[in-house]
Each structure stands twice: as structure tokens, then as C-alpha cells.
Amino acid sequence: MLKTLRQIAQEVGTAKDLKAALSVIVQRVREVMGTEVCSVYLFDAEDQRYVLMATEGLNKRSVGKVSLARNEGLVGLVGRREEPINLEDAPSHKDFRYFAETGEEKYYSFLGVPIIHHRRVMGVLVVQQRERRQFDEGEEAFLVTMSAQLSGVIAHAEATGSIRGMGRKAKPVQDAKFLGVPGSPGVAIGTAVVLLPPADLDSVPDRAATDVPAELEAFRVAIEGARKEVRKISGRLERTLRPEERALFDVYLMILEDPAIAGEVEDIIRTGQWAQGAVRQVVKQHIKRFDAMEDEYLRERAADIRDLGRRVLSNLQQARKDKIEIPDQAILVSDELSPAMLGEISPEKLVGLVSVKGSGNSHVAILARAMGIPTVMGAVDLPYSRLDGLPLVLDGYHGEVYTNPSDEVLRQYSAVMADERELVKGLEALRDVPCETTDGRRMPLWVNTGLLADVQRSLNHGAEGVGLYRSEVPFMVMERFPSEKEQQATYREQLQAFHPQPVTMRTLDVGGDKPLSYFPIKEDNPFLGWRGIRVTLDHPDIFLVQVRAMLKASAGLGNLRIMLPMITGLHELEEASHLIHRAWGEVRDEGVDVQMPPIGVMVEVPAAVYQARELARHADFLSVGSNDLTQYLLAVDRNNPRVAELYDFYHPALLQALQSVVHAAHAEGKPVSICGEMAGDPATAVLLMAMGFDSLSMNATNLPRVKWLLRQLSLTHAQQLLEQVQGMDNPQVIRSVVDLYLRNLGLGRVINPASDVTA
Ligand code: PEP
Ligand code: MG
């Protein structure tokens, strides 16, 4: 049963559109369950009706025509009850509704199960039979499982507009709005540049060839490229492998030289398909054919074909990349944006970023915020591979993407961009004034850095120090661990640029969603695994080199502070301090005269909240990492768009935890700062100041907004607001209360600049 389910799921997953997916479902379910009828009804939210969308067994001409109101018929009943209905004699049920055009009068038994996605009934899956009998438990369980798999496919199709494309009111990709989650604030208007995952056959879209002879030529060159690679690998392994083992490469070469396969690809290109699409079609057909073979040896050839297909595709993609012209206002679109991809397009041309995977708290989004590039993450329904070259509007405040926007959408967002420019100009004037409330509370605003470009941006925006230097960022752009000397030079740049202001350097925090290509960590739960201080304590070699580089870089400057990530207990602080003292001794033995820097602990794991007092006693300062603390406290993966709505800085548990950390640090007479993204949100910054944080550290882009807002308020007012929300239990209510309070004071302009867009 499981195997059958898996097979059907695979067929559904590779169907070219929803119509094809539904017809696979009804055919296969009918076949596997041995029933006479299988049908799918989908709920059309606009008309509030269930529409028959596919059937095997009923009259096919009724597809798209027969529909039932929400409270009508057995289908309506299944939808309302949100559970299966299994009947021996359906026509005698009081809710049975008969449609002459379906020809269903002869069927007695009925089993209907709801198709539910994220609490919403999307439709009903039905099987029927002439015989009067109840479907058994196994059949019911099978249909429920089928429906659960179908729900995701339908939700995706609905969001991409393809349900409407099924012969009803067509809604193509043009002028559509796709929802994601906010990644980095701001609006961008530009042209989509799609980065496809390299050499991934499944993600290659169909696309019309603009120049057929050029595509044919590109294909021939790519085949030649793949041939050369195979010969090279075979030659390299000449001494390692026996001749019979190397015979595989001859098979590869034979496949590549097979005129039949190449001919099939060329024929498809001649019909007007681009080369990559033609390669995908032919390779996948061959894989399917081999996969279905009885003979194990022949079945294994499917893997060879896939491998060769990927090689040819990779050659085609590389050649295209070399040629492609990046438009001036480029919006980079990708299935999974990575920090390294930010470097693919020159910064002058890059105006926006869209990622299908990930959420606003993924590290790539954090970097985008630091660079001030509007970004939408987690746009899970975006048909991203089909967008290349299309005009887009990107709303990074709300996490929305408009494809082929209408004049009205363009007009409204151009107005938001103009307002933004005005606001930024106004804020520039605040650069040299202190961040001080109307009743005289001075609030030092620090900056989070990592990229070299952050330095100038931070200084331009009037940062008073660095509250978090993410030292892993320079590690991530290398192809090997940087040497002590290289690190020293990088750190020196930071320390010097901000001197005499403090620079808080966090020791290497890799793992989680910050992998190093040259130090792979494979784990099922990377955020609960080998991350941050756990890695560096296990690798004193890496840790000592880094700390020595930091210490040497600070010589003569004395503005270094060292901070430890992911601390869960005192023992880790003690071990790390011991190593830092050792490195300090070594550096002084080498004749470099440096002071011992203050050592701080990041509070970003719930265990550290409960031990904040002890940690504060032994450390020189605390700094809250609200990004991870929110994820661990609320058990919400910071990268997962499906639960992004649950990731909420206004959650009362988080607010209580933050307040208790401030009290604990102050009870030990130690300063406490916050360096998660929460500090850079102007509205939450008000609450943090009221809690008593000694400094706020944020991305350079938001710093002027936070400064502007805090300068308009008194500490007393902020404390009253905090007191008001501390008694509340619902994060959304808290958010609304804070927003309303600030808006009533006339301070709404830095909170949600695109709130008036009505598109
Ligand atoms: C945090 O977790 O809040 C933090 C500042 O660190 P990072 O986002 O780099 O994990
Ligand atoms: Mg963190």
C-alpha cells in the first residue's frame, strides 16, 4: 500500500499542471481501490461552491459544469463536517443530491473525504460503487492518506492561479500577487533574474527558444563539453580503477555519442523549445523508461542517464551564464537564496531579492537587511522558474511579489518608494545627533556588521559602536579556513574603522543555516546540533587561531570585546574563557602588547535565560540574540516559512524572558545589550529601551529609523506602553496595541510605510 501511495504521489508531483495531477489521482485511485467511480470536487472560494474538477466513472462532460453550494449534497456535508462520510446507501441519505448529467444514480456506496490544507477545506475526494456496502477501514485510510497528499498540490496550484486556468476564469502568471514573508524592508521595481539551482533537471522550465539555430549550436557545444569531462575523469582514474570498472565511462561516452538521443533533443529544439528544456524532456523520458525495466542492470542505467543529463545541462547553464546580460534594476529570484548568491550580481544593479524557501530570520535575509536590499522570503507558491525577464514589484514590508504589475500597482509602489527616499533624506540629518528621548534617556545605538560594505554604511548612519560582528561571514565567502594573518587583517579593518568605539566580535558561529562549504556538517536537526560554541570548543585549533587573530588585530586600539555564541551553561563560558586567556598569553609571549578584552555571552538559548544571573556574574557583559532565542523559546524554525507566522517577537514568553535577562544582568552590575533583529525594529526597540537594555545593536539600514523614533518619545511613555502590554497574552493584540499607540502619537511613518497600498 505504501509503495502504491508513494508511486501515485510521485506521478502527481511530476504532473505538468493541476488538471493532469487530478486526472492521475482519479484514474489511479479508482484502479488501486477497484471502485467504479473516483471524483474530485474543489471549492471555489469566489463562488462559494464545490465544482466537479475530475472524474473517472461519472460522465466526463459534467466536469467543470456540475457544482454544489457549501450546504448542498453529500459533498457539501463532507466539507462542513471536515471528516470522512462512508455510506452503504447514499441515495437514501437526506443530503443526497442527484445531478442527471453525471449519471451517478446507479451508484449506492459512497465514501467522501475532505481535502484540507492548513485548516482550510479545499475540496472533497469521492469514491462510489454500485454494490451496497460500506467501504472498509483500509479503504477509508487509503483515501484519507491520498487526500492529505493532494491538499498540498491543490493549495500550490490555487496560489499560482492554475486552478482558475482550468477552463474557468483564466488567471495566468501575469498580474498576479504572490505571498511570502517579509525578508528585508523596502520596495523594489525591476526585472526578474532567475538563478536556477545548478544542474537540476527537475527545475528546468519549458521556455520558447528565441533563436533556434543558436540553441542547436549551444546543445552541440554542451554535448562536446560533457564528453571532454567524461574522458578527463576516465583518464584521471586510469591508475586507480581496473579496466572493467572504467568500462562505465565508455558506456557514458556511447550514450553521449548516440545519435538517436541527441537527435531527439534536436527535434524538440526545432519545435521551438530552448535547449535546456529539450534536454530535460528527453532525459526524463529515458529515465522513466529505464526505471520501469524489470532487469536490475538496465534499471541502474537510469542513474547514468540522469548523471549525463546533468552534465550536459550544467554545460548549457554555464555557457548561458557567461552570456547573460543583467538588467539595470535586477531582482534576483531563486528557489533557495544563499549568502553566496548575493555576490552573483553587481551591487549597483541589484535592487531586490526573492527566495521561495527560507524566512525573514534566515541569515541571508539578515544580510539583505544589512545591505538595505528589499527582500521577500518563503514565496512558496511562486512559479519562480518561469519568471526570468518579467517585470516585478517586490514589497519587502509585507512579503509580497507582483508579477507583470498593472499600472495602478506600479503607481502606488512608486509613490511608496518616493516617500521612502524622502524619509531617508530626512533621517540623514540625524547622523550626528545623539539618540536621546525627550526626557533625557541616552540610548546607545550600535550596529551589526559582517560584510565589509557594512562599515561605511554604519559610519554614515551614525553608529556608536559594533554590538555584533558576525565573524563567520568572512569565513563563508572563502574556499578554506582563513589563516591567522588573513583573519587578523580583516578584524583590524573593523576595529580601526570604528576606533575608539567598541567593536564586539563574536567568535565563529557556524552550523545551523550558516554552512562552510569546506567544513560540511550533515545533521538531521542542524539548529539543535553542532553549532556555534559547540563547534569551536570541539576544535580549539580553530578557536585559538581566531582569538589570537582578534587579539593581535586590537593591538594599540583597545576597543575589542569578544562575545560567545550559543552558550547553554557556565561550563562553556569557563572553557572558552580559559582558551581566550591561553591565546592572550601566547600573543603576549610573541611580544604583542594587548589588553585582555571584555568577554561577553550571548543569551540566545532558553537555558541561558534561566542562568542569566550566573552567566552575568562570570562574564563582563551579556547580549541577547533574539533571533535564536525566539526560535528556541517558541520552538519555531527561523527558516521555515510554513511556521513564519508563529515566529513573533511580541510573544509574551519572549517579552518576559527579555525582561528577566535585563534584571539578572543588572543585579550583577553588568551591562546587557540586544543584538537580534528585534532591536532594529523601531516599534520593538521602544519596548526594549523601556525594559532597561543598555544598548541596542541593529542593522545599519534601520538604525536611523530607530533613532528617529526614540528621539520623539519619552522614556516614561515607553515604560507606560511596556507596562500595558506586559499584562497581555496574545502576540497579535500586543502588536496592534504598540502600533496604535505609536500611530496615535503621529509616529507611524517609520513603522509600516507601505500600509496604504490597496492593490
Ligand atoms: C541572534 O541569534 O539573535 C543573533 C544575533 O545571531 P544570529 O542571527 O547570527 O544567529
Ligand atoms: Mg544567533
What hetero molecules are bound to the protein chains?
phosphoenolpyruvate, magnesium ion
Tell me the overall shape. globular
Report the span from N to C terminus: 47 Å
- Which range best describes the helical content: under 10%, 10-25%, 25-40%, 40-55%, 55-70% or over 70%? 40-55%
Give the helix/strand class: alpha/beta
Extract low-pLDDT stretches: 164-172
Mean pLDDT figure: 89
Q: Roughly what fraction of the amino acids lie in strands?
A: 15-25%
| Number of E strands | 22
Main β-sheet, spatial strand arrangement? 7-14-13-9-10-11-12-8
C-alpha Rg, in Å?
A: 30 Å
**Count of helices?**
25
Main sheet summary: 8 strands, mixed
